[in-house]
């Protein structure tokens, strides 16, 4: 494997860690193949919709509305990022993402305030 090549098995784990707060459930498919070139994730959105999502060099796409299935005839488009895909399939994703971003920014502000107890913000 060249240094610039992506191992999608590793990428899938990073995606799970990154977006698990914003979906109901997310796992690597145990029935579809997981290779360096392609991995399938089973995702259940906050709206309780189930999807099987393919991750490969072309991007991210829904390949089934059932776990562990790849329905070629769907012909769904690829998305460049998992976030763009989630924006399309999960209306609550944007809200969850915004809430998480606000929470993290608040944590940073609290840490900065704790480090500067004499600073009144001026």
From TrEMBL:
Name a GO CC annotation attached to this entry. Answer: cytoplasm
This protein's superkingdom? Eukaryota
All copies of domain GSKIP, residue ranges: 8-107
Pfam families reported in the protein's UniProt record? GSKIP_dom
InterPro entries reported in the protein's UniProt record? GSKIP (IPR037395), GSKIP_dom (IPR007967), GSKIP_dom_sf (IPR023231)
Q: Name one GO molecular function term.
A: kinase regulator activity
Query: What biological-process terms (Gene Ontology) are attached?
Result: regulation of canonical Wnt signaling pathway
- Family the UniProt entry places it in: Belongs to the GSKIP family.
The record ties this protein, via PANTHER family, to: GSK3B-INTERACTING PROTEIN
**Protein name per UniProt:** GSK3-beta interaction protein-like
Source organism per entry reads: Actinia tenebrosa
């Amino acid at each position: 494997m060249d240094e610039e090549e992506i191992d999608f098995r590793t990428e899938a784990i990073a995606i799970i860690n990154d977006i698990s707060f914003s979906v109901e459930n997310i796992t690597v498919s145990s029935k579809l193949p997981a290779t360096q070139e392609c991995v399938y994730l089973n995702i259940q959105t906050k709206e309780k919709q189930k999807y099987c999502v393919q991750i490969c060099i072309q991007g991210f796409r829904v390949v089934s509305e059932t776990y562990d299935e790849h329905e070629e005839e769907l012909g769904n488009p690829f998305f460049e990022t998992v976030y763009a895909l989630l924006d399309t399939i999960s209306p609550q994703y944007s809200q969850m993402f915004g809430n998480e971003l606000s929470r993290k920014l608040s944590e940073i502000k609290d840490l900065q305030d704790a480090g500067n107890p004499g600073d009144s913000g001026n």
